[in-house]
Amino acid sequence: MQPSPYLSLIENKQFLTILETIKAMHGDVYDLLESAQVPDQLFDFGEDSYLLTSRVVAFFQLLEQRVDNATLIKIVQISAQKNVLQLIQQLPINNDITLQQALQLFFDYNFRSSPQSNFFIKTLFNRQFLCRETLFINEKAMPVMELYLIALLEALVSALCKINHRCQSILLQSEKFKLCQQLSQNKQLTIYTEQQYTAIELSEADLSTLMTTNIAPLITLSNEQNSKKLRTIAGALYYVLPLYLSNGRPNIEFSAQLCGVSSRTLMRRLREEGYTYTGLLDVLIISLAKQYLQNPHYSITEVAFAVGYPYPNHFTRFFKKMEGMTPKQYRKNE
Predict the structure, then answer these.
(1) Which residues is 117 bridged to in the sheet?
(2) Assuming Cys at both sites, which of 12, 55, 96, 102 could form a disulfide with 49, CB separation 3.0 to 4.6 Å?
(3) How many CA atoms lie within 13 A of 80 on its CB side?
């Protein structure tokens, strides 16, 4: 299989829900975040930021190692239900549509940042399945990632149909099925392992069910363009690296490690997109610095630290080199 020319991202809002659930169950999320190279600054950046999927996968793998199955399932189930309710509420406009149409709209709007994922309805084993085709790079983390996905799909169908949906069959890409078996309340559940997709079975009656829901097609051209930008290596780093800047200006070795590639590969892929690593980082830091400088509540020292410069004089020299004026002059002009 050829490596993807893209980096997959996860929107921070879903991951934050998982962290909040773990914290509510008295789990040490900060130790998990540090071990998985996920910056705890994500709490400050809020729901509109992004994380590399590879870091979230590492987090889930560590979580599986540190808690028992019953606790893991509870965390995943609660998080999936909360995320579904939050995501549905963000899609306004009442409209009578079928469950199948509602599902497609939901995925189109909420999973724009993951280029290696596809949601669709497909006939398999003479039945209808709601499928997600996803390239799982880390096979060890597949069972817990699929556990969350199955919980999310079940919670989504239940929320849309306003019933406690129990699927009759599920498909897993992994050969390990015990976690999903324990998740389901259906003792007659059929599980197909080592499949091409992760999926839950839906009946024809389910899919054609009409409902009045708060989902509407909100995908605009600007959203589609933003999605394409997110999918490039440069675009992904542009969204992810701000979370790490308070620890200092990240070098290319650090960023390559986050992306799961060698430094040479990262440089080559950026070059193919028309960037150098240093140039991309410079543009990112200047853009963030300007945003901070427009807020009078931040001192120059605080701005410098926030964008990776522990010494304000170094930041001032960098800013003047890039913009032809000092941060203080820029703030005055603004």
Answers:
(1) 134
(2) 12
(3) 23
pLDDT tens, position by position, 271-320: 988 899 999 999 999 998 998 898 888 899 989 988 889 889 999 999 99
Helix count and strand count (H, E) for the chain: 17, 9
At 230, list the tokens: 């997110």
Backbone angles phi, psi at 38, to 5 degrees: -105, 120
Task: Report the pLDDT averaged over residues 161-182.
Answer: 85
CB 60 within 8 A of CB 141: yes
What's the CA gap between 284 and 322, in Å, rounded? 12
Cα dist from 6 to 17, 75, 206, whole Å: 26, 30, 35
At position 320, the amino acid (one-letter code) is K
Listing DSSP states for 72-112 in one string gives HHHHHHHHHHHHHHHHHHTS---EEEEHHHHHHHHHHHH-T
User: For the chain, how long is the longest CA-to-CA vector?
Assistant: 70
8 Å CB contact between 200 and 167: yes
- Sequence letter at residue 192: Y
Paired sense of beta strands 190-192 and 169-171, if any: parallel
Residue 162 β-bridge partners: none
Q: What is the DSSP letter of 187?
A: T
Instruction: Read off the pTM.
Output: 0.67
Amino acid present at 164:
N
